Amino acid sequence: MLKGKTVVLGVTGSIAAYKMANLASMLGKLHAQVQVLMTKNAANFIHPITFETLTGNKCLMDTFDRNFQYNVEHVALAKKADLVLVAPATANVIGKLANGIADDMLTTTVMACTCKKLISPAMNTNMFENPIVQDNLSKLKKFGYTIIEPEVGLLACKDVGAGKLPSEEVLLQYILRELRFEKDYVGKKILVTAGATMEAIDPVRFISNHSSGKMGYAIANAAMQRGAEVTLVTGKTALAPPPFVKLINVTSAADMFDAVTGIAGEQDIIIKAAAVADYTPAHVAGEKVKKSDDELNIPLVRTKDILKYLGEHKKEGQLLCGFSMETENLIENSRKKLEKKNLDMVVANNVKVAGAGFGVDTNVVTFIKKDGEKELPKMTKDEVAAAILDELKQYLP
């Protein structure tokens, strides 16, 4: 995922430095080259050998260390870096970087870097809220640094407040947003629907389906990482929401219809990956139906067809992509859907194929377009998401 990318981690003297070992390991598993820089104070909290073991690279601390090949080390590393993350970033190092003080290996290297630079403060709440620290963070923002806001929680000093270093998973998401993909969707607004809708029969029972939301969430995440402004309208799932995405939670098909159609006109691309219930109980839809407590056969009416509405009201230049879940006549039925609903592409999925369908992490799909079909081999849903965005990019104005 990050093969060929070099990530520089700057670790400073904070108790939260221990989290960076796990982050270095996570980056290595994604095939990134990881180079760790430490301040001397950081070595009081975690040993350099830990990082050297995890990354396979010498952990640099001393600007004048002679134990390396002949070059100006901080300049050579700065040229190679694709991204720098200083975490945990103490008030001391934040102050140095904001005011041009370069007196150790970490600060000299960061200042020599021209790549994207992230700063993740971690300190006592009173220190973090100190106007001087806040002013220094404002300076760094002005100079193009991205500040990762600390979390609120129980700190090492036993105070509760802002200043806690975010989890390794959160820090990794910031790195992936910058490095995983080229930013070929910058300036584009993408609406994605995901998950299953639920149609209430009564306060206890409901009609739904087996959709896990994994495919839609993967699309939303990939679109965000490619620079798009993403809105995710989601039914019920057990998934953590993708970061840096506007999330709209809905329950019923009517809720999803209202949420999608309310903002559809603002979108450049709409990808409907949600498995919307085709029917809702008649009494829920507003039709009067006599129903006894022991009744098992509930009268049903069709829910509103979101894709059909979007196709009928598609603005000029807008792209619409739908999904088709078929058990037979996959290509024929999907092409009928493409034409009937005025779509630009249908992602057809035969749920009878091993490794495809609901609840699994892989998919086997065929892209149906006006000018032909394109069958993909079995892929992870992350890979399918990237392929969908690659295909749609060809039709962007």
Account of the protein in words:
The protein has 2 domains: 6-179, Flavin prenyltransferase-like (Rossmann fold, 3-Layer(aba) Sandwich); 189-393, CoaB-like (Rossmann fold). It is of the alpha/beta class and 397 residues long. An 8-stranded mixed β-sheet has the order 12-11-8-13-16-17-19-20, sandwiched between helices. A hairpin with a 5-residue loop joins strand 6 (151-154) and strand 7. Helix 4 (91-98) crosses helix 7 (131-142) and helix 9 (214-225) crosses helix 13 (381-393). The mean pLDDT is 90. It has helices at residues 19-29, 48-55, 73-80, 91-98, 105-112, 125-129, 131-142, 168-179, 214-225, 253-263, 306-312, 330-340, 381-393; strands at residues 6-11, 33-38, 83-89, 116-121, 146-147, 151-154, 160-164, 189-194, 199-200, 206-207, 229-234, 246-249, 269-272, 279-281, 300-302, 319-326, 345-350, 362-363, 365-369, 372-375, 379-380.
The secondary structure category is: alpha/beta
CATH superfamily of the largest domain: CoaB-like
CATH class designation of the largest domain: Alpha Beta
Mean pLDDT: 90
The portion of residues assigned to helices is 25-40%
Number of helices: 13
In angstroms, what is the radius of gyration? 25 Å
Give the low-confidence spans: none
Please outline the major beta sheet.
8 strands, mixed
What is the correct CATH architecture of the largest domain?
Answer: 3-Layer(aba) Sandwich
Count up the domains: 2
Write the layout of secondary structure elements.
Layout: E1 6-11, H1 19-29, E2 33-38, H2 48-55, H3 73-80, E3 83-89, H4 91-98, H5 105-112, E4 116-121, H6 125-129, H7 131-142, E5 146-147, E6 151-154, E7 160-164, H8 168-179, E8 189-194, E9 199-200, E10 206-207, H9 214-225, E11 229-234, E12 246-249, H10 253-263, E13 269-272, E14 279-281, E15 300-302, H11 306-312, E16 319-326, H12 330-340, E17 345-350, E18 362-363, E19 365-369, E20 372-375, E21 379-380, H13 381-393
Parallel strand pairs: 1-2, 1-3, 3-4, 4-5, 8-11, 8-13, 11-12, 13-16, 16-17
Antiparallel strand pairs: 6-7, 9-10, 14-15, 17-19, 18-21, 19-20
